From TrEMBL:
Family matches, as InterPro entries: NAD(P)-bd_dom_sf, SDR_fam
Keyword line: Oxidoreductase
Provenance organism: Coleophoma cylindrospora
Pfam families linked: adh_short (PF00106)
GO molecular function: oxidoreductase activity
Protein's UniProt name: Uncharacterized protein
Annotated family: Belongs to the short-chain dehydrogenases/reductases (SDR) family.
């Protein structure tokens, strides 16, 4: 097995696992040009997938991704599917369209990639704090609704939730995830951390349930790396925000700030390894059986569970189960695995 790490590229991963790409169907949220989702899709194009479904809000922002895919392989069916992740109604409509579309018989890999970051306080149309809703709740609902087509893909199907080391900013505020009333206690970085923690806890509980049902499917979360993308739009608008955020993050985590930068190709590699390497979770002899269920979080293309890479609150099994119940309550939908 090749050794993967910080400098590994997405194209390398795709070419190393050709059987897990060729003729398969991939769905990606947030594939706007210049982002990790777009680079994930473009990397997959080197492996001749059957279809790439690009879920986003605006075609004009995604058309360059479609063009890049077709410049590599014009035979790939590449489809823009509109969705507004700040609206649960939109998520339900999109999922319904996909479920009813007979030309999409299955979804082999769902990349829950889209996100917003460190934005001012606001509520979605459904009344939820925007970062928690967009980054977690909408993906929880989308995955739940599309699960029949994911299950139809068989044991090699994967659900990949793009998280961040930003999860270190905050655990889940179970007593008040929406910072009510009127943004009480809200900070842009704290809310981002809560949402990114939710991505990991969702992966943990989903993977745990998938193990129990014996389907062979798996769910993973990951830190893609520090990468310059449009995700930082609010940070770029306030030059002092990043330094303040790093100070808070270092105080809360004990980790060193100012992470080295990755290219987009390096940034999408961890998502792709989570999606394509079927032996990824196989633990070494040093991993205790009780800890195998926690092998859901990747950093630099490797599964990590140690405190120097992932905060304990993001791998807390009780909190994962609690978040699952809270998410079902908030979206008004039971997720039956």
């Amino acid at each position: 097995m090749a050794q993967y790490g910080f400098k590994t590229t997405g194209k390398t991963i795709v070419l190393d696992f050709p059987a897990q790409v060729k003729d398969r169907i991939f769905a990606i949220t947030g594939p706007s040009a210049g982002g990790i989702g777009a680079e994930t899709a473009i990397s997959l194009a080197h492996g001749a997938p059957s279809q790439i479904l690009l879920l986003g809000r605006t075609l004009s922002k995604i058309q360059p991704t479609i063009d890049a895919i077709h410049s590599i392989d014009s035979t790939i069916t590449t489809r823009f599917i509109p969705v507004d992740l700040s609206s649960l109604t939109s998520v339900r409509a999109t999922a319904k369209d996909i479920l009813e579309d007979e030309s999409i018989p299955r979804i082999d890999v769902l990349f829950n990639n889209a996100a917003i970051m460190a934005c001012p306080y606001s509520l979605t149309v459904d009344g939820f704090e925007s970062q928690f809703a967009t980054n977690h709740l909408s993906h929880f609902l989308l995955t739940s609704l599309l699960f029949p087509k994911i299950l139809a893909a068989g044991p090699a199907a994967r659900i990949v939730n793009v998280s961040s080391q930003g999860h270190g900013f905050s655990p889940i505020h179970f007593d008040n995830p929406n910072y009510a009333p009127a943004g009480d206690g809200y900070t842009p970085w704290g809310a981002y951390g809560q949402a990114k923690t939710a991505n990991i806890l969702f992966s943990l509980q989903l993977s745990k349930q998938l193990r129990a049902n014996g389907s062979g499917l798996r769910a993973y979360a990951l830190h893609p790396g520090s990468i310059a993308t449009n995700l930082q739009v609010h940070v770029k608008a306030d030059p002092g925000m990043i330094d303040k955020g790093l100070q808070i993050w270092e105080e809360k985590t004990g980790w060193e700030g100012k992470l080295p930068k990755k290219s987009l190709q390096e940034g999408c590699a961890t998502s792709l390894r989570a999606a394509l390497d079927l032996d990824l979770e196989r633990p070494g002899d040093e991993v205790e059986t009780a800890e195998v269920v926690k092998r859901v979080y990747l950093h630099d293309c490797q599964i990590v569970t140690s405190r120097d890479k992932v905060m304990p609150h993001a791998l807390d099994e009780a909190d994962a189960e609690r978040l699952w119940g809270l998410s079902e309550e908030m979206v008004g939908e039971k997720f039956v695995v």
